[in-house]
Design a protein that fits this description.
This protein starts with 9 loop residues before the first strand and ends with a helix. The longest helix has 16 residues. By secondary structure, the chain is of the alpha/beta class. A hairpin with a 2-residue loop joins strand 9 and strand 10.
């Protein structure tokens, strides 16, 4: 976005891979692999320091020594892109990226020329951002902190006029000690929405209802249960489409169809419908946008098929997301035996805090596999997730389960056990060391043998 706005941009990172690398090349933005002090020559006017970096990084140390101006990513967005815009912020533990992408697409189809920034590659735009020049700026609002020198959640920088709250659960165990600490940040967010603004909140969550109870602006609830302001009903899940009917305070709002699968995506779409209609987007435009929305990468993304086995990639990395993703896969591909392979990679899931919840979620698949804990050496034995314990709990629930030390072992095992008609879900917020590619290759080799 900075490059498109006329700034000269370069940078450093460790391990840049698609789709981010493709997007940078397309924009003509170069980068240095790894971090070195000389990467800051010639001296930049400003350095945007990502929240993955901390003291001890050679470039951070030179920036501080030489007093090179620096900012966090959210503060740059706050300063450069949000002034004069109507800030529409999508927040919550789950569904932010999909919901933000869908909202941006709805506003686009509705002729609003939205500006947007999403934490994923939006298939419909072929990008993770857009500067349409319209009144609204649609942005994914993360509760994670902004930088080592800026510990405020990202979303507090975004001066929201209207927000969506999809859910609130415990996550980000590396920076938040418990759910109460996360709830406090959402209370602060609600407290800065102006009285002329609006909050669209998941009404079936007691936590979300409590957080929004003292808002100074109107709050509209949404859900699948009666009692919410916006309600979705008559849900139909098929292999090619999901259909549902929407009512607003008992009044018919319309029937909609979309390619996205799963109950959770009906809720995501419902929140977008509520916010967009409140912004004056026509129902027909919303209906067209939902029907044509192709989604974002790594959300039930079919990566390939070999020997009659479907290999599907998904970003799910929290027990709730794992549960909903497995359920969505059953609706999208009914009748298939589902293998769920999970990588404990996020800062929350590398820890033992949600072991039981993870096991219960994986047990909703027909067979489960737990991969190695990412960067295990950074955690003590006492705080680290134990794949063996997770597997034992899954087996106690009557489902077959295994733990392996590498993606290569997982691929070879599944290739030897999977049958025609099966579906394999690779669940990780990272690359899972190329599990999808390794599995497709292993299945292909077994088929030739």
């Amino acid at each position: 976005m900075l490059a498109e706005s006329g700034f000269l941009v370069c940078g450093s990172d460790a391990g840049v891979y698609p789709p981010a690398s493709d997007l940078l090349r397309k924009a003509g933005i170069g980068w240095k692999e790894g971090f070195r002090e000389e990467n800051l020559d010639p001296r930049p006017d400003c350095v945007v320091i990502g929240n993955a970096l901390s003291r001890g990084n050679p470039e951070v140390e030179r920036i501080l020594d030489e007093k090179i101006p620096y900012q966090s990513l959210p503060s740059v967005i706050e300063e450069v892109f949000l002034p004069g815009r109507r800030s529409l912020v999508v927040t919550g533990t789950h569904g932010k990226t999909t919901t933000t992408s869908l909202l941006a697409w709805v506003m686009h189809v509705g002729g609003r020329r939205p500006n947007f920034l999403v934490g994923g590659m939006v298939e419909d735009f072929g990008s993770s951002y857009g500067l349409g020049g319209g009144e609204e700026f649609v942005i994914e609002g993360d509760e994670y902190d902004s930088a080592f020198f800026d510990k405020a959640p990202k979303f507090l920088h975004y001066h929201p006029d209207e927000i969506i709250i999809t859910s609130i659960e415990f996550d980000h165990a590396d920076i938040y000690p418990d759910l109460a600490a996360i709830e406090l940040q959402f209370r602060r967010l609600v407290n800065v929405v102006p009285r002329s603004g609006r909050i669209v909140a998941w009404g079936e969550s007691a936590t979300v209802r409590t957080i929004t109870a003292k808002a100074f602006c109107p709050v509209e609830s949404y859900g699948l249960e009666a009692g919410c302001d916006w309600t979705a009903g008559n849900l139909e899940f098929g292999e090619s489409a999901t259909r549902f009917r929407v009512t607003h305070r008992g009044k018919e709002a319309g029937t909609f169809e979309m390619r996205l699968a799963g109950r959770h995506n009906v809720l995501n779409a419902l929140s977008v419908i509520a916010l967009a209609m409140g912004r004056g987007v026509e129902v027909d435009a919303i209906r067209e946008a939902l029907a044509t929305f192709r989604g974002i990468r790594r959300r039930l993304e079919l990566r390939g098929e070999a020997r009659g086995v479907l290999v599907v990639d998904d970003f799910a990395h929290h027990p709730t997301a794992v549960h909903e993703t497995i359920a969505a896969a059953r609706g999208r591909w009914p009748g298939r035996r589902i293998w769920a392979a999970f990588e404990p990679r996020s800062n929350t899931m590398r820890r033992h805090l949600l072991e039981n919840e993870l096991a219960d979620a994986l047990a909703t698949a027909d067979a489960a596999i737990v991969g190695p804990v990412n960067r295990p050496q950074l955690l003590s034995d006492a705080e680290r997730l134990d794949p063996g314990r997770v597997v034992e709990r899954i087996r106690r629930e009557g489902k077959p389960a295994w733990a392996f030390d590498s993606a290569a072992e997982i691929a070879e095992f599944i290739a030897g056990e999977a049958c025609e008609g099966d579906l394999v879900l690779a669940l990780s917020n990272g690359s899972f060391d190329g599990l999808c590619e390794k599995l497709i290759d292993a299945l292909g080799r077994r088929g030739r043998d």
